[in-house]
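Protocol check, entry for the methods section draft. Step 1: assemble the input record (protein sequence plus ligand SMILES). Step 2: submit for complex structure prediction. Step 3: store the structure tokens unaltered in the notebook. Ligand used here: flavin-adenine dinucleotide. Step 1 record:
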Amino acid sequence: MTITDISFSEFIKDFEQTLKHLFHEKEDINQLSLERGLPPSMMKDILSMKPLSVAIPEQYGGRGSKVKECLGLLAAASYESLPLSLTFGINIALFLEPVSKYANEGVRQGIFTRFLENQNMGGLMITEPDYGSDALNMKTFNTEVENGYQIKGTKHWQGLTGLADYWIIASRQKSSNGELGRDIDFFLADNTIKQQQVVVEELYDNLGLYMIPYGLNKLDLEVPANFKLQPETTGIKMMLDILHRSRMQFPGMGMGFIKRMLDEAMIHCKSRIVGTGNLLELDQVQFQISRIQAAYTICSAMCARSSRISGIEFNLAMEGLEANAMKAVVTDLMQESAQILVQLSGAKGYRISNIGGRGIVDSRPFQIFEGSNEMLYAQIADMVIRAMKKRKEVHLFNYLKQLPLTAGACLHFQKELSFSIDGNLSQRKLIDLGRVLGRIISIGYVLDLEDKGFRKDLVDNCVTLVKQEVLSLMAAFNSDNIVKVVDGYTENSSWMAFV
Ligand SMILES: Cc1cc2nc3c(=O)[nH]c(=O)nc-3n(C[C@H](O)[C@H](O)[C@H](O)COP(=O)(O)OP(=O)(O)OC[C@H]3O[C@@H](n4cnc5c(N)ncnc54)[C@H](O)[C@@H]3O)c2cc1C
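Step 3, stored output:
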């Protein structure tokens, strides 16, 4: 029997049981998480279940790159360990899916076989020390040589630094006069071949996600011509397609993580007696745990939506609105869920071996990488405002009412959204508005899931809580504030001089 003959429910059940055995019986994940890297034998045991087969097309021996299966796998992993889930997320969204879609036909089989049979892994190199958010200005360059391309530059913060067998590397073409082209090219590199090896100059002391190595990578490689990824149109559009698909897979990583925060919070608050009763009887605790439940509901709805729209058969280059909304909102919810669990756990949550405390640190960079959330929220607002201008519509509610993505959800926010947008908004207001829009889009997903039969009490609670959040975000949006940082603030500001 091969991996493709097993039903997904059986496959994921086996995988969950293996993780439980490895992390709770054979070893203790709470202790393992405090060490950098994962013992190679443990990684071998995990990869022997062929988890990455979910992202390999059937004709190459995989389970067929079905988004539902990819998200299911990410969720199963993140219930036990967010870093393990991110390890799979990197391999799936930043390597295997781009290879399935854009790699030369002749090189795909070899790569997929090594993933399936030899437990290989791959990652993506975009960020450079001087170019992070401003990635399009990257300085790593490629030049055409006799049988392929030479790539030179410096990258940093790549997940799986020093561990990945393969990389996809972003660079700009250097012309004969030394100028760098505006488009971005992507190349595969096989780290087992000397000319293609990336040199790790430094390993970073990442604050969390200890299982995943990060660092500074020096590139001076030569790769064969068929290692260049082949865009459908431009390289930038290919990059957007890859990044948007990856952002739409964040809910998979969020799903298991948020569920774990919820389960831990419930278990703790049911058993912890304070005064005459347990914590769960307190009104404030009910409110806080309901917020994690709302996160659970939103994340479930995003997974369902993503499963329908983010497969490799679709081009997502133009789907920034949904991709940004899913990534920014779900990562905010992950961080908030971990913060709530720690608060409810009291001092116990402050132990480094506690999953809540680690959850805060491990989920925090999700708000920074693959587009910092502020940047994504600003882009969401910007996209909506531009579309409104195109339709010559200045009234936000009227616009959202005719947009299929928000038509149902916006009815719950009619009062808050009934205003006109004219003139330019400051960046801070764009971000506030983007936060609001991201939450309204999310409620649209939740209502869709309710239509399919998801339980109504969770949906009703979720809508109520998001309404409350939108109200407070709109208060921020409506308050006039152009406060600027005071330079040289120490002059005449020492309290001691006034006592
Ligand atoms: C744990 C982790 C994993 C990562 N994994 C990878 C990986 O696998 N591959 C890879 O190539 N890179 C990876 N990165 C790098 C990551 O993508 C970059 O750190 C990110 O793009 C931000 O770039 P920067 O660090 O240079 O910050 P900067 O670009 O200097 O930005 C710093 C901050 O400034 C603000 N800011 C910047 N621009 C704007 C704007 N336009 N509007 C509003 N605010 C703005 C934001 O708050 C931002 O967080 C990872 C980073 C971390 C921390």
